[in-house]
Amino acid sequence: MIDSENYSLNHTHWFIGIVLCAFVLLLGCNRLSDQEEQFFSQASENAKLANEGLRRSNRYMNAWLEKADTETGLIPRNLGDSRDVWNAKDAAADNYPFMVLTASITNNELYKGRLTDMLRTEERLTSRLGALPDTWSFKKDDFASGRPDTADIIFGASEYIKDGLLPLTEWLGESVWSDRMLHMMDDIWKYASVSTEYGKIPSENVEINGEMLQALPRLYYMKDEDKYLDWAVRLGNYYLLGDGYKSLYQKDIRLRDHGCEIISGLCELYCCVSFSRSDLKEKYKAPLYRLLDRILAVRETGTESLRVVCMQHWDFLDDATLASVGQATPALDQTRRLATLAADAGVTGLVCSPVELPAVRAEVGSGMTLVVPGIRPAGSAAGDQRRTASPAETRANGADVLVVGRPVTRATDPGAAARELAGHAA
To answer: How buried is 424 (Cβ within 10 angstroms: 0-12 exposed, 13-18 middle, 19+ buried)?
Structure first.
């Protein structure tokens, strides 16, 4: 268990002691060869990196636990303007499961105590459509919205399963968290309402359906229950053999978050049926290969506008917010470092805030497409954006694509607001 002051890893120390004893015996019997010396040196460096990773993860977990709601014990969506709410697609999907994972390695008391209690509270308070959770307001001590939005609830549950509970289960095995995942999956399909020739599916959203396709084959192998593969095949048939193929091929392929999930999901299903339902392997092969060939062709020829665009970090994260969760590196330095790593990896586009835009452009040069949210005309509310700029300023600093949401969607006349913004950005 990691002590909050000195991060002593008792179980890790026990393991390292055994390993060191083995090495001492080895050294006493034989002189290490040069290759063995190299292996030992690399193992030592890996141990240092692992220890540092655990130390930082533990600091992060404890910092977030300090920010938990005092009444419910649940963590908020963020530390900005959504500090009042817990939600499935962010607080649950992207944060809480990895705090559980950290505690399972570093702090057994927290793992079996407070973090398990958080799950029980979440199930009791936030489950709204069967086991499916909805956004909870700490101030209201009730759901944030008066009426349930089934589509939004299914999206949140899908995110929670694929991004959080599934990787956690692949580490922990069967647990209270895998039970939560299975109950939510069953109810996603219970409330599936989109009719297709193959049966009802949860959504027309390729992100949700892609997440389902990534999760269901794994649950099929995990639980050996045909219903999980049957549901996945229903989606596979729709996208590869049915009406969903034309739309997917012509407009819905995108290699970025919030859309890329369908491609990897279909590939995962194809791998699964190759072993479990070989008749479907032959049916799926040609349409799936055609989709993959199109992705490669567009990337190689540049004849269309398909690009990989990576997010560096959320735009509301400033120096103070990063420091509050144990990240000492200033936001600007963090952005520069991530931009360089992305460029070195071959990424062709980045999302960055307007404040960091000049530094990122200087770092990556003119060949990188820079997509910039946080665009606010003079006098408009910043909302949850900590780093904003006007359309004209952003264009002048080298932005290629401006992302504008609430100044248009919440305007009295959205059309007029959009035209005015376009004029400022010209």
So the answer is: middle
Dihedral angle of Cα 310, 312, 315, 319, to the nearest 10 degrees: 180
Task: Name the DSSP letter for residue 85.
Answer: E
The verdict on domain 309-425 having CATH code 3.20.20.70 is yes
**Side-chain half-sphere CA neighbours of 95 within 13 A:** 23
Q: What is the pTM of this model?
A: 0.67
Burial class (CB in 10 A: 0-12, 13-18, 19+), 240: buried
| Gyration radius of the chain's alpha carbons | 24
Q: Which residues pair with 86 in a beta bridge?
A: 136
Q: What is the 3-state secondary structure (H, E, C) of 331-354?
A: HHHHHHHHHHHHHHCCCCEEECCC
Q: Are 180 and 131 in contact (CB under 8 A)?
A: yes
Query: What is the Cα–Cα distance from 337 to 360, expressed in whole angstroms?
Result: 9
Strand, coil or helix: 388 = coil
Distance CA 133, CA 180 (A): 11
Angstrom distances, CA of residue 39 to CA of 23, 35, 45, 83, 165: 12, 6, 10, 47, 35
Identity at 232, one-letter amino acid code? A
Of 227, 244, 122, whose CA–CA distance to 185 is shortest? 227
Query: Residues near 346 by Cβ (< 8 Å), separated by ≥ 6?
Result: none
The length of the chain is 426
> What are the tokens at 383?
């909302």
Can you list the residues of the chain whose pLDDT is less than 50? 1-10, 306
Residue 189 CA to residue 193 CA, distance in Å, equals: 9
H/E stretch holding 117 reads: helix 114-126
CB 239 within 8 A of CB 248: yes
CA gap 301, 282 in Å, rounded: 29
The most distant pair of C-alpha atoms in the chain lies apart, rounded to whole Å, by: 82
Tell me the pLDDT tens digit for each residue of 359-392: 888 888 877 888 888 888 876 766 666 667 888 8
DSSP type of residue 257: T
